[in-house]
Every structure is written in structure tokens, then in C-alpha cells.
Specification:
Distance between the termini: 68 Å
Structural class: mainly alpha
Helix content: 55-70%
Largest sheet: 2 strands, antiparallel
Number of helices: 23
Length: 449
Amino acid sequence: MSRHDHFDQPVSLDSAVAVAEWNAMAGAFLAHGASTPDHLARLLDLAPDYGGAHALKGLFLVLLGRRELLADARAALARAEKYEADANPRERDLMLALRHLLDGSPKAAITALETTLRRAPTDTLAMKLGHALRFVTGDAAGMRRSIERVLPCYGSEHAGHRYLLGCHAFALEETGDYAAATAAGHAALDLAPDDAWGLHAVAHVHDMTADAAGGLDWIDRRQAAWGHCNNFRFHVWWHRALMLLDLGRMDAALACYDEHVRAERTDDYRDIVNATSLLLRLELEGIDVGHRWFELADLADARTADGCLVFADLHYLLALTGDGRDAAAGRIVSRLAETARPPEGRHGPGPAAARGLAAFAAGDHAAAFAALSAARPHMQDIGGSHAQRDVFERITIDSGIRAGLLTQAGAILDDRTARRGGCEDRYAAVRRAFIAGSANFPCSRSATA
């Protein structure tokens, strides 16, 4: 018996209780809720022969970006395929997307999900999965196009409309339309007070437009939107710490790291990304972060052969160089040089970026600037957001300044400001003043002094 979920999409489930659990799981996923895996586990207990749920479990596992979980994802696909004959087209598309991901073809996986959206434009679950994959692959323009194709098909009463607006807000921000992103994000939060992604999109706007005070107010007044989250809440705390950093409140930013960003010492790559990039930003501002690199480096040391995401690899490298683990850092640099290629076949930015980060840590700033400058035009290919990749932009600029290449570093600084709508943050103002000869340059890590 086929039923429909609360997005009015068919689900091959014969139990109303199972459909309710599917709805709860999908709703939690859209809101980045901590309860998502619990709902999925209960659904699989209720309907162990539901191929769509097994395929979705596999997709979730791959998105975690951990090599040891790929075997579980393959097992989930095998279980899904046992029931493929009874699956509907939507569920088969989920299986196909998972196959492509496990084959190392994220673009083909996105195409499978777009097939669902062409057939059913208001399938919010397929939209969010495609959005997540485009985020991982750095395809901001495609993210926006996909959402804007389906947006006119939604009525205001559709269960997924409010979360679609939050995704639209983020896509608008990542493509530089900050005013429209703000409006969409506010609309999303008005309709869905638990829309952490919509809140996060507006936080990105505050970062990109150098409005740290406004960003703090936005986050602090809407804790209901992100307090319920899985580890995504650590990322919102990271945004808050960046705003404190931009306001020059270094002690508060470091306290935010200890009390919130790294309150739970998980080995999720996204949490390590938050932590390493915040510590590096603090060091670039002359703050001694002390022992904090050690536990991150321990985790990164176990990931030197992981190779699931270049984005994660480069942050593991920050942890290792931060703790002076040159041999482990060298393993990542060597592996990326041997294996890193983006899906379209062009040599990716990972190898040059890794060489540059290692050179920066070693104090060879001219070599760091050369390598990072070569990687810079293609860094969006590694995925993540502009705000996340900005740590590499800052290292590029600082390496140029420390190498005495002030004109070249100033040109990148100008381009960075232009990409931020002409808004100059504290980081840029300090560097511009140094280049003009009116300020001292901050520095803390001994290897980069």
C-alpha cells in the first residue's frame, strides 16, 4: 500500500505509524535536528523492508565524510537494493544517488536527485539532499539554480516551503546577493523558528558584510533556531566566535572556543573544521592559543589517510601543523599530491593549497604565498562556504605580507573586500594599515614569526 508523506510525496510504506516516523525524520533533517538518526532508526525498526529508508541512511553516512563509514553505506545500499523492485521512482532515485556517491561521482548523484525534482518539484527532502551535495562540491551557482527552479511550485502552506526559503537564503548569500539572502532568511525564520540553516544563512551575510555586532544580535536573539541542533550548533557557536574576533574581543572568542565550539571533543570533520579554522584565525591576530592544538592534532593524525574530502584534509593539516607534527602533515601533503582530482578531471587546488599551508607553518612565506596563490582561483572546488574558506584566504594574504610581497598581498586583500560587497572587516583593516606602514603586524606562532 502506498501512502504519502507530509511533502505530499509517495512512500512505499503500509503503516501510518511508519509514515509518521518518516515525516519526523525528514522534518528533523531539514532543521538539522539532533533527533534525525533516532527517527531513522525507529523507522527501520518499524519497516525493515523499506528500501527508501536504507538508501537515505546510506546517503547520510556518506555525507559524514569518514572513510570508515563507507562500508556501512555500502551495506545500506545492498539492503536497499533487495527491495528495489517494490520501490517507487523517488526511492529508486535515492538508491541511484547513493550508488553514484559510493562510486565517487557526486555530480551524478546530484543529477539523480534533480530527476526527482523534475518529476516532483516540491519534494523538499530531495531538494535538501541536493543542496547538501552541492555545498560539499562547492557548486553555489548550481545550488541557487536548483532552488529557484522549484521555488515557484511551492505554495505557502506546503510543509517544506519554510525550509526551502532557508536553503534559498544560503544559496543567495553564497552567490553574493546579500540583501535578498537576508530577506529570505528572515522569512524562513518567521515561518519556521527551528530553521537553523536559515538562521545560519543570515549569520553568513553578517560575516560577509562586516556587521559583527548585528550578527551577534541575530544569533543571540534566536537560540530556539539552533539550540535543538545536532553538532550543527557548534558551527553556529563558531560563527558567534568569528563575530567576537571581528570586534576585537579575543578573550571572548577564545572562551567561546573552550565553552562551546569545542565543548564536546568529537572527531566529526565538521567540528574539527570549526575548531582548527578558529584557532588559526586567532593565531593570525597574535593570540597564543596554547595547548589547544594538541587534541585536534591527535584526531587529525588518525585521519591522514582518510581522503574523503579535500576540504577536511586541509583542516586536518592545520591541526597537524599547529601542533608541529611535520611527519603526519607531510603524509597529507604527499597523498593529496598523488590522488587529489576533482570530478571533472582538472587538477584540483588541494595539492598546491596543502604545500602552501605546510610552507606557511614552516616559516617559508614566499613559498607559501606562491602555492596558495596558485590554488586560490579554484578553492571553491573543495566545497564549504565563503566564510569557511576564508581561513585559507587569510593565510594567503598573511604569507604574502610576511614575505614582503605587499603589493601582491594588497591586491588579494582588495579582491577579498570586493567579494564581500565592498565591506571591510577588522582583519582587512589591520592588514591594510600595516601595508600602508601605520600599524604593527600581528603574529603568534613561532614558526611564522
